Amino acid sequence: xxxxxxxxxxxxxxxxxxxxxxxxxxxxxxxxxxxxxxxxxxxxxxxxxxxxxxxxxxxxxxxxxxxxxxxxxxxxxxxxxxxxxxxxxxxxxxxxxxxxxxxxxxxxxxxxx
Length: 113
Known about the structure:
By secondary structure, this protein is mainly α. The chain has helices at 3-23, 31-34, 36-54, 58-63, 69-81, 88-112. It is globular, with a radius of gyration of 14 Å.
């Protein structure tokens, strides 16, 4: 893989993180109980964020060390392998609390080239 591939992965991560945050605008945590499509969509978006993060090269991860790579990939692994035990409170908090500053970091990385 090349630096170009890492940049493409960062764009994928950013795109899916933004989409997850936009999906909860105007929603509350309780909405996940009643909106199965919302729940499944959010889970999938976070899985893709983690999968793209896992594909960033070790060199890219070292270069962009402000990104918490193990946690991002770990969340993906938890969702995939623990599909039958997804903690929706953690999912919601990840999107509501963790993703906005994560998105800001990614935007700064991508703006600086």
